[in-house]
Amino acid sequence: MTDKELKNLKDMLWHSADVLRASAHLAANKYGQPILGLIFLRYADILYKQHKTITEE
């Protein structure tokens, strides 16, 4: 991925996040909880995949 493509992706993701926040009508201190939940689920998924790979070997 080129630097220009990466910048475009980053800009698009930030814009999407802004649209989601605006349409959800959440204050900044209210949308942290769902985001932390998503981060936790991603972390759990990574650990699960690592454990699964180790046990299959």
From TrEMBL:
Q: Which UniProt key words apply to this protein? A: Restriction system
Per the record, the domain of life is: Bacteria
Please give the InterPro entries that the UniProt record associates with this protein: D12N6_MeTrfase_N, SAM-dependent_MTases_sf, T1MK-like_N_sf
Its signal peptide is none
Swiss-Prot/TrEMBL GO biological process terms: DNA restriction-modification system
Q: Which family does it belong to?
A: Belongs to the N(4)/N(6)-methyltransferase family.
Please state what the protein is called.
N6 adenine-specific DNA methyltransferase N-terminal domain-containing protein
